[in-house]
Amino acid sequence: PAPRTVLLTGAAGGLGTLMRGLLPDHGYELRLLDMRPIEGEPDAIVADLADRDALREAVRGVDAIIHLAGISLEAPFEKILRANIEGTYHLYEAAREEGVRRIVFASSNHVVGHTPRPAPGEPPVPVETPRRPDTFYGLSKSFGEDLAQLYWDKHGLETVSVRIGSCFPEPTSVRMLSMWMSPADGARLFHAALTAEDVGHTVVHGASANTRLWLDLTSARALGYEPRDDSERYAEKLIAEQGELDPDNRAQAYIGGAFVTDPPIWPY
Ligand code: NAI
Ligand code: 15L
């Protein structure tokens, strides 16, 4: 049977807030979790990913989990270790103990952020490209993907790891024209990831059907995902404001944008 009750971790965050608005239209009943309380959501579970007892209770009885909670930018290694590496491990253990069948894991393009970006007209980067994290943050998402593979091979717990490009209401940089996933396409992709059969551990890129797309969507489409949006309508304005990407500028030469610089600098 298709999953109905879904635990959304990181529900207070940017993507979590967008998905709280959109996923119920795809038929889901959401249980919310975040370390921060959510205004207007008194039933949301306020818990840290370090709290194993709270996680076990939170995952009990759900059909699936969308795991968004964690640090979403570069940070000191110790913080990334605690929230993203240990936190994701605690969540997988809770899911295994409670018999949850599937997790959709918010991975990131920063797992492969040090991959040179395709020049205009070159094909997009395939999902099988070697991992080249651009940050401790990207490294933690690479760990999450390996954790997901382990829990599938050893425990039969399925995961779709979504290497999200940039999911915001609008793209805000020239790079994001090539990385953007509209919130509506994000909800479509999560829905496909929750309902496709026999996913084992599948890695997909998360992006819209952008004219300038850098991320190959073959494995995402194989789940049934059909993106409908294209960032191109924002191109003229963003390029007028920021200029075309400069291949000689290190912060603009890779998939991960300015995450490859130390420290990462805006705009991404
Ligand atoms: P965000 O930073 O707005 O939200 C993350 C949420 O996780 C926050 O509400 C925070 O309170 C919660 N959180 C952090 N540490 C926690 C802990 N130890 N225990 C419980 N909750 C904790 O980030 P955003 O943009 O909403 O991203 C959501 C997820 O998607 C993140 O895992 C991020 O790495 C991933 N992602 C997002 C992309 C995007 O374009 N928005 C791109 C690629 C990946
Ligand atoms: C990410 O992984 C971040 O969580 C998000 O805030 C954006 O910076 C995005 O990648 C991006 O690469 O644009």
UniProtKB/TrEMBL annotation:
Residues 6-167 form the NAD-dependent epimerase/dehydratase domain. Signal peptide: none annotated. Keywords: NAD, Oxidoreductase. The keyword NAD applies. Coiled coil: none annotated. It holds the Pfam family Epimerase. The keyword Plastid does not apply. Belongs to the NAD(P)-dependent epimerase/dehydratase family. This is NAD-dependent epimerase/dehydratase family protein. It comes from Streptomyces kebangsaanensis.
